[in-house]
Design a protein that fits this description.
The complex is a heterodimer.
Chain A: H1 8-19, H2 24-31, E1 44-47, H3 51-56, H4 62-68, E2 74-76, H5 91-94, H6 96-112, E3 117-120, H7 123-135, E4 141-144, H8 145-149
Parallel strand pairs in A: 1-2, 1-3, 3-4
Helix pairs in contact in A: 6-7
Chain B: H1 22-31, H2 33-55, H3 60-76, H4 78-91, E1 95-99, H5 102-120, E2 126-129, H6 133-138, H7 140-146, E3 150-153, H8 156-163, H9 180-190, H10 202-219, E4 222-225, E5 229-231, E6 236-241, H11 245-251, E7 255-261, E8 265-266, H12 271-283, E9 291-296, E10 306-312, H13 316-320, H14 336-340, H15 342-347, H16 358-369, H17 394-398, H18 405-423, H19 429-440, H20 444-453, E11 465-466, H21 473-481, E12 486-487, H22 494-507
Parallel strand pairs in B: 1-10, 2-3, 2-4, 4-7, 5-8, 7-10
Antiparallel strand pairs in B: 5-6, 6-9, 11-12
Helix pairs in contact in B: 3-12, 9-10, 16-18
Classes of the chains: A alpha/beta, B alpha/beta.
């Protein structure tokens, strides 16, 4: 983008920052070589692979490796996991109704798992899915992957 | 930096510019439960089939790279390849016509059909057609009808659309929005000779269409087709299809007219090897399509004795001149991007208002038709297309020629925003919000201050959630709050918590 605007210096700076920036699960699994972070999180959890983690950053199953190592965590597979939740930044406002239609299907799949918690590596998607579930008083809440990995006991979920 | 993208290039007429912006058209589509179910079911089925046949090819990524490289080469040498194609078609006994836009293409084809009638002393009142996106783009059937020539669509799905006086909603499966029961009704109502006891089993429906079309094929004097490929070095044209009705059109009538977008040319015969693998696996999820027809000019005593190739520009040269936009011309119309698109899956194709719907339509249409700007009631519907995507990236993953559709959409959005900024004296609320965000994100201190300021939002929260906001905030967030709550901003920002945690630990 910087290059398109003709700013090569900014592009070089952006490149150097990008080279040392990692997604959380990448940092833990690839850079630090850790899959078991010693967390305890006794809840039924389903993982939504967000479009950016799945198709742009290509983090693959690293978040799942981390979640599987969390003690007490009951990980349930999300049906149609790879389809977009409908957030898409301004898409959720400019095309609110199409976004809601996509969200409705995502929420249906989340609820079909019986999970208490839906997690992801992307806060904005969680705000979207969580916002929909909250409106429905669905009883499933959004929790970021980092919060689960920081979990030290049952009280961490409260 | 070139700025061709977004300039109006095509004529007003035609089938690229819808009547309403995408969000308004999508609203109606979303309410149509039958359409939602039909398209959801059909796209899910094609997705599974495609994934299976793609997974069995170990060299799939290499094939995609090859497809992308060939197309990049074609775009770099388009003028010389087209001249080579023209030379070789003529050498093989065909004739070549060049059409700047849709109207010119329609006029050329109408004149060719009329000339056949004049020469044979009997006007041609009916022509048969092979399924073709190019003729959909130029609205050829309407132009022929105005000249008293009836164009009969022979592709089963295209026939369904034509009989119902409907519009195609998918590049490959134009009647994807219809189910069997609806098709049975359309046949019963619009095929005069059909057996009234017709059921909705696929076999009976196909047999009814077969009986309906067979008489037409045998009587047809002129056929009109599109083309999937043209080979410059041999002057060969190619059509891939499933039903064999295309083959009937391409071989039975004495005169064949092919309308082809100029970007469809390939340099060499060998290049077909790549595309004949990429296309069927990506589009119908088949290893190989049932019928591949290739023809080179005219063969005396065999097949059509008169062959015309009409080369269509209609905005393509303008797209080619744009270094970013030209990637969209690599498209081979496989429709894999439509089938994986979560937006298309919910709204269907009609909401896009263009013969090219879905992700590729959202980048191709603005380039072929131009984005004309304007706001409110005067807004150009085409301007809404680059926003008709959540940028989830599924389309890029499946594209057989690796068109980075999400990046092209973002580029088109940027040009639309820049264009509107230049046109308008007053910035929009969105522009103001974006400017404020840019300010806040310009430095860590400002960002921290903005984060702290967010706490004000707690005033609107009940039970840790925000379900409604007072004006003027309500108008900004109405799209969001209509179906979703907002989480209440936390009492403490992450930075504050982090700093406190360090101090607490230090104190211990």
């Amino acid at each position: 983008m910087a290059r398109r605007a003709g700013d090569d210096r900014l592009a070089a700076r952006a490149h150097s920052v990008a080279a040392k920036t990692y997604e959380l699960s990448e940092l833990l699994v690839d850079v630090l070589g850790v899959t078991d972070v010693g967390a305890h999180y006794p809840h039924r959890v389903t993982y939504h692979p967000t479009c950016h983690s799945l198709r742009m950053l290509r983090v693959g199953d690293k978040p799942l490796q981390l979640l599987r190592a969390v003690r007490g965590l009951d990980l349930v597979e999300l049906p149609a996991a790879e389809s977009c939740c409908g957030f898409g930044g301004t898409f959720a406002l400019k095309n609110a109704e199409t976004s809601t239609a996509m969200l409705a299907d995502k929420m249906r799949h989340v609820q079909s798992t019986g999970a208490e918690v839906v997690t992801a590596g992307d806060s904005s998607c969680l705000m979207h899915i969580g916002g929909g579930l909250s409106r429905l008083r669905a009883g499933t809440k959004p929790v970021h992957l980092a919060e689960i990995l920081a979990g030290e006991g049952w009280e961490a979920a409260l | 930096m070139s700025t061709f993208l977004g300039l109006p290039v095509a004529t007003d007429r035609g089938t690229l510019r819808g009547e309403r912006p995408f969000p308004a058209a999508a609203r109606d589509a979303l309410r149509n439960s039958q359409l939602r179910r039909n398209i959801g079911h059909a796209t899910a089925m094609i997705r599974v089939r495609r994934a299976a046949v793609v997974a069995e090819r170990e060299d799939w990524e290499a094939l995609r790279d090859a497809g992308s490289a060939i197309k990049t080469d074609v775009m770099a040498r388009l003028p010389e390849l087209l001249v080579e194609l023209e030379r070789n078609v003529i050498a093989a006994g065909g004739r070549v016509h060049w059409a700047r836009d849709a109207d010119e293409a329609n006029a050329i084809i109408t004149r060719i059909v009329q000339d056949v009638g004049t020469r044979q002393g009997q006007p041609v009142e009916q022509v048969v057609k092979v399924k073709s996106m190019a003729t959909q783009e130029t609205d050829l059937n309407r132009a022929l009808a105005e000249a008293g020539i009836e164009a009969i669509e022979t592709d089963l799905a295209e026939l369904i659309v034509q009989l119902a006086d409907d519009k195609p909603s998918h590049i490959l499966v134009p009647a994807i929005h219809r189910n069997r029961a609806e098709i049975r009704e359309i046949f019963a109502r619009h095929m005069p000779e059909v057996d009234p006891s017709l059921t909705d089993t696929p076999r009976e429906l196909a047999m009814a269409a077969r009986a309906h079309l067979r008489r037409t094929f045998l009587a047809a004097r002129v056929a009109i087709s599109g083309a999937n490929f043209a080979v410059a070095e041999t002057g060969t044209l190619g059509v891939v299809e499933s039903e064999g009705n295309g083959r009937m059109c391409l071989t039975l009538p004495n005169t064949l007219i092919t309308l082809m977008g100029i970007e469809k040319v390939l340099p060499t015969w060998r290049d077909l090897e790549v595309f004949l693998q990429l296309l069927p696996r990506s589009s119908t999820g088949e290893r190989m399509n049932p019928y591949t027809s290739l023809w080179t000019g005219v063969t005396p005593g065999d097949g059509p004795q008169e062959f015309h190739l009409v080369l269509l520009d209609n905005g393509r040269t303008a797209a080619l001149a744009d270094e970013v936009g030209r990637a969209a011309l690599h498209c081979i119309r496989c429709s894999a991007c439509l089938n994986v698109c979560p937006v298309y899956e919910r709204t269907g194709g009609h909401a896009y208002g263009s013969v090219y719907p879905g992700p590729i339509g959202a980048v191709l249409t603005p380039q072929l038709a131009g984005m004309r700007g304007g706001h409110g009631r005067d807004a150009d519907p085409v301007d809404s297309l680059p926003y008709a995507s959540s940028l989830c990236g599924a389309c890029y993953d499946v594209c057989p020629v690796k068109i980075d559709i999400p990046s092209l959409l973002v580029e088109l959005r940027a040009r639309h925003v820049e264009g509107e900024q230049a046109r308008r004296r007053m910035p929009t609320a969105e522009a103001l919000a974006m400017a404020a965000a840019a300010q806040a994100m310009a430095g860590p201190r400002r960002f921290a201050a903005a984060e702290r300021a967010m706490r004000v939002g707690r005033a609107f929260a009940h039970d840790d959630r925000i379900s409604a906001l007072p004006p003027p905030l309500s108008s900004l967030a109405s799209g969001w709050l209509s179906a979703r709550d907002l989480p209440a901003p936390p009492p403490e920002t992450f930075r504050q918590w982090w700093a406190r945690r360090r101090t607490d630990r230090g104190a211990r």
